[in-house]
């Protein structure tokens, strides 16, 4: 006895001739997306539109509205601070926002396209010469201030 021929992965996505009814021609089906194309199509649907997100740069002071659900209620809590880092792009784009709360530095990482991030508003543009502002972690008080930039619109 010989072994049956191996089935290619492409053949699994196509309907077989035996199961398809040839009685009435059906409407043309949507193309079946495979692998990376399927993931890319899903990610494009999840992206927030360009109108929802402003241009954010490192050094900007932003107010991020974070959705918080307590019990059966949902509210938006603002979190305001300086953007000290931007990472990734597309659906996975994140910003790290640092603020001082009761004398202690607090940093949060926000995924910009997440449903938990309700809104992002730029409050002030900062003038910096670095891509990452991690040096602000070692500074205290007035030394943590970032100069304001006036050549970009808010």
From TrEMBL:
Swiss-Prot/TrEMBL GO biological process terms: translation
Family: Belongs to the bacterial ribosomal protein bL19 family.
UniProtKB keywords: Ribonucleoprotein, Ribosomal protein
Annotated GO CC locations: cytosolic large ribosomal subunit
Keyword Transmembrane helix: no
Biased composition (Low complexity): 18-30
Ranges for region Disordered: 1-30
Ribonucleoprotein among keywords: yes
Biological role: This protein is located at the 30S-50S ribosomal subunit interface and may play a role in the structure and function of the aminoacyl-tRNA binding site.
PANTHER family: LARGE RIBOSOMAL SUBUNIT PROTEIN BL19M, RIBOSOMAL PROTEIN L19
Name of a matching Pfam family: Ribosomal_L19
Protein name, entry field: Large ribosomal subunit protein bL19
Gene Ontology MF terms in the entry: mRNA binding; structural constituent of ribosome
């Amino acid at each position: 006895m010989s072994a049956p021929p191996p089935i290619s992965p492409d053949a699994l996505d196509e309907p077989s001739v035996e199961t398809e009814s040839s009685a009435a021609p059906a409407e043309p089906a949507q193309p079946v997306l495979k692998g990376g194309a399927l993931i890319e199509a899903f990610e494009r649907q999840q992206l927030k539109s360009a109108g929802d997100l402003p241009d954010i740069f490192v050094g900007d002071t932003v107010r991020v509205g974070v959705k918080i659900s307590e019990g059966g209620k949902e509210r938006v809590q603002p979190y305001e601070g300086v953007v000290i880092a931007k990472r990734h792009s597309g659906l996975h784009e994140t910003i790290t926002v640092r603020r001082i709360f009761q004398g202690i530095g607090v940093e949060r990482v926000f995924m910009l396209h997440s449903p938990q991030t309700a809104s992002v508003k730029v409050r002030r543009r900062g003038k910096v010469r670095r891509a990452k502002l991690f040096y602000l972690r070692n500074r205290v008080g007035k030394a943590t201030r970032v100069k304001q930039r006036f050549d970009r619109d808010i």
